[in-house]
Amino acid sequence: MKNMKDHIWKIIGVIAVVAIGASVVYSNSVANKANEGIVFTAHTKGAEDATVTLTEYSDFQCPACGQFAAVIKDVLATYPNDIKFEYKHFPLVSIHPFAIPAAKAAEAAGQQGKFFEMHDKLFENQQVWANSVNPATYFTSYAEEIGLDVGLFKTHMKASRIEDKIADEFKEAREHGLTGTPSFFLNGTRMQFETYEDFIGQIEAAVGVDTAATAEVADPAAAEPEVKFGL
Questions:
Q1: Is the CATH number 3.30.70.890 carried by domain 43-207?
Q2: CB 160 within 8 A of CB 35
Q3: Do residues 46 and 76 make contact, with C-beta atoms less than 8 angstroms apart?
Q4: Cβ(135)–Cβ(103) under 8 Å?
Q5: Which of 20, 63, 91, 125 is deepest in the core (most CB within 10 A)?
Q6: Is-contact 109 115, C-beta < 8 A?
Q7: Using CA atoms, how far apart are residues 58 and 69, in angstroms rounded to an integer?
Q8: Cα(137)–Cα(105) distance, rounded to whole angstroms?
Q9: Pairing verdict, β 83-89 and 43-46
Q10: C-alpha to C-alpha distance for 208 and 85, rounded to whole angstroms
Q11: How far apart are alpha carbons 154 and 143 in whole angstroms?
C-alpha cells in the first residue's frame, strides 16, 4: 500500500512539474508576442528643430500633472515654432497605484502613433479612471475613441518592453534627483519655480520674448490659485 501511495504522489508531482512548465512556456509565448514589433521613439511635440526644449517628467495619475497638461498645450500653441516639448514617465506608484497602467496605455497607443492622443484622454478624464476599480476598461474605451486597433492595443498593454521603458525613465528621473511630479527641464537645466508666472517667465526668457511687447499666455489654472507644484 505504501509503495502504491508513493507511486501516486510521484505521478502527481510529475504532472505538477509539467503543468508549471507549460504555464511558463505559455507566459513567455504571450510576452514574446506582445513584444513583437515594439519600436520606441521620443514623445515630442512642437518644433523638432526648436532651440528650446522643454522636458517634463510626469505621472498620469498626478492631479498637478493633469493641470499642467493644459498649461503646456497653451505654451506650445503660443510658441509653435520656438519650443520642442518632450514627455517622460515618472510614475509615483507609492501614492498613485494606477500610474503605471496609465503609462502603459499611453505607450501602447504610441505604438500606433497616437501617444499624445492617449496622453490627452488620460489627463482630461483623470478623475474618472483614477477613481475607478478597473481603469483598464476606460483605457480600452479611450483607445476606441482615438481610433486605435483595440486588439493590438490590448496586446501591447502586456508588453514587457513597455514596462521596461517606463521603469528606465523612472530610474532616469531618480538619477536626476527628482522626487515629485511634474518636474521640468528647460534646455537640460532643471526648472525651479513656485508660481505659474515663474514658470512662464522662464520659458519666455529661453525663447527670447520681450514680455513687455507681447501678450501673456492665458493661465488655465487661474481659477485654482492654490495649486501646489511638484506633487
A1: no
A2: yes
A3: yes
A4: no
A5: 91
A6: yes
A7: 10
A8: 11
A9: antiparallel
A10: 17
A11: 9
The identity of residue 52, as a single letter, is V
Q: Where are the domains of the chain?
A: 1-35, 43-207
